[in-house]
């Protein structure tokens, strides 16, 4: 029996809109994953600490505030400095197309924009988490 995929869902920064991340979190849970949702207004340090403590396989970061080019790389750097770079990092929210390739170069595995079907997100995580 395969172990369940554990995924941490987080809202870094000051962004207070959480409807999208809650929809995705529920879809992931309904697909059989264990979901840990950290809530709003999390610092990169809090997110990485929770990911390590919860022994997650992946994380989904949602941001709508425009601070993705500062917060996502900080989270990636903290994962590396804590020897946790094996955690698959995905992002979602309002992220301009011109920033997506740069985020991927930094270590974000995939970006899912508004309107992405939850089935696409589920499939991506299932195919890319190393269990």
Note down, in words, how this protein is organized.
With 131 residues, the chain is of the alpha/beta class. It has a single domain, classed as 3-Layer(aba) Sandwich (Rossmann fold), CATH 3.40.50.280. The chain is 44% helix and 18% strand. It has helices at residues 19-30, 44-53, 68-81, 97-106, 118-128, and strands at 6-10, 34-37, 58-63, 88-93, 110-112. Helix 1 packs across helix 5 (118-128) and helix 2 (44-53) crosses helix 3 (68-81).
Spell out the key features of this protein.
131 residues; alpha/beta; Rossmann fold; five-stranded parallel sheet; globular
Percent range for β-strand residues: 15-25%
What pattern of helices and strands is seen along the backbone?
A: EHEHEHEHEH
CATH architecture: 3-Layer(aba) Sandwich
Q: Indicate the low-confidence ranges by residue numbers.
A: none
Oligomeric state of the chains present here:
single chain
Shape: globular
Radius of gyration: 13 Å
* Class by alpha and beta content: alpha/beta
Helical stretch tally = 5
Instruction: Give the termini separation.
Output: 11 Å
Write the layout of secondary structure elements.
Elements: E1 6-10, H1 19-30, E2 34-37, H2 44-53, E3 58-63, H3 68-81, E4 88-93, H4 97-106, E5 110-112, H5 118-128
Parallel strand pairs: 1-2, 1-3, 3-4, 4-5
Helix pairs in contact: 1-5, 2-3
């Amino acid at each position: 029996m395969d172990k369940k995929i554990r995924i941490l869902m987080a809202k870094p920064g000051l962004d207070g809109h959480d409807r999208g991340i809650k929809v995705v979190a529920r879809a992931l849970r309904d697909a059989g994953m264990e979901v840990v949702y950290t809530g709003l207004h999390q610092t990169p340090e809090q997110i990485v600490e929770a990911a390590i403590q919860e022994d997650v396989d992946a994380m989904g970061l949602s941001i709508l505030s425009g601070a993705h080019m500062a917060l996502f790389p900080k989270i990636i750097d903290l994962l590396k400095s804590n020897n946790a770079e094996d955690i698959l990092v995905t992002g979602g929210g309002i992220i301009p197309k011109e920033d997506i390739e740069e985020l991927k170069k930094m270590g974000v595995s995939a970006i899912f924009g508004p309107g992405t079907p939850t089935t696409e997100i589920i499939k991506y995580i299932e195919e890319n988490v190393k269990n």
